[in-house]
Amino acid sequence: METETSDRKGLTTATGPSNLVLWIIIIVCATIAFIALIIAAVALSRPATPSVVVQSAGDSVNAAAGSQTGSDVMSSTKTVGGVPIRHDFPGRIWTIAIGHDYGAHEYIDTSGVLAGFHHDLIAAVCGAAQMNCYTIWDPYSNCWMSEAGQRSSGGKGLHAKWYDACTGWSANIDRIGTFSFSNAFSPKSRSFFYTKPGSNFNALDIRNKKIGFLDGWSEDEKCVARQSAIQGKILAKNQIVYVTAIKDMLDIVTNGTVDALFAGDHSFDRHVAAGTLAKLTGSEFSCRLRGNSMMTRKDSAFIMHWNTGFQKIVSSGKFKKLCQRANDTHASDERGRVKCVDT
Description:
single chain; alpha/beta; D-Maltodextrin-Binding Protein, domain 2; 2 domains; 5-stranded mixed beta sheet; 10 helices; 18 strands; elongated; disordered N terminus; transmembrane; transmembrane helix; membrane
C-alpha cells in the first residue's frame, strides 16, 4: 500500500482501496436512514382506525349492531353508527362476572357449584354469537356499588377490566351515564317498601325512619329521593343501611335495625308469599328504565356481539324454551321463579 507522509508531527494518511470502501459504507447507511424516514412519515400520515365502538348512553349503536349477522360480527372492518370499527378475532375470550345470590337466576347448588338461569342464558347466547365466553364469580359491588350519603358508582371490577361484562343489571338514571347495556332479557321490576308483618309503616311518610337497601341495586337512596310523593324522601346518612345480601336484608328488618326495606318486587315477593315480609302495595315506585341486561364499559364491543347472539336465540324460539326450562330446573319456593321478557 502506498503512504503519504504528512508535514505535521510525522503523521501518515492512507489512500487507496480501504478508504474507498469506508466511503461506500457511509453512503449506503445514509441512504437506508433516508428511506426509513420516508416510510415513517408515510405511516404517520395515515388515519388511525379505532378497534372498538365508543357507545352512546342510548340505543342507537345497539340497534345498528342488532341488524348484523353472525358472520359479519366475526369478520372484516365495517362501521356502526358511522364509526369505523375492527371486529375482534374469533379466538378472543370474553369474561363475564356473575354472582350467587339472585334467586333462581344465580345461586350455589347442593354440590357447591354455581348455577342458575343466567348461566344457561350466557351459554346459549355466546354459542349463537360464536363468542368464547367464561364466567367469573365476583362480589356484586365490583360491578356497581353504593355508599350511604354518596352517589352510587361503577364498581372497580368492571372499570378496571377484570372482566368484559356484568350479568343481570338494569339500566337506570345513574348507570347509563357510566356503562352501556344490552337488550333486556327480563321485565322491569317494580319497587316497593317491605316491612315485617304487622308493621304500621307508612310508605309515603318516612321522616325519622331508617331504611334498608341492597348494595348496588337500583332501589337505592337516590331513587327514594326522586319520589315526589314521599315525605322525608331525602334521607340522612344515619337513616340509611346498606347490606350486601338478601339474607342480610331479611335480618335487619326482622331484628328491628331498620323500619323498612326498599327493594325490587322480583327478588322479595317470594318472601312475602312465605310470610316473612309484608309488602306495602298501596305505593309502587319505579327505579329502573328497563329489565335486566348485560352491563359493560362504554369502550367495549361486547354488547354488539351479545345482542346478535341474543336475537338469534329469540328468533329461533330457543330463548322462550330456555325460560320455560329454567322454571323446571332452577325455580323453587326458596329461590322464586324466572321471569323473561315477552318475545
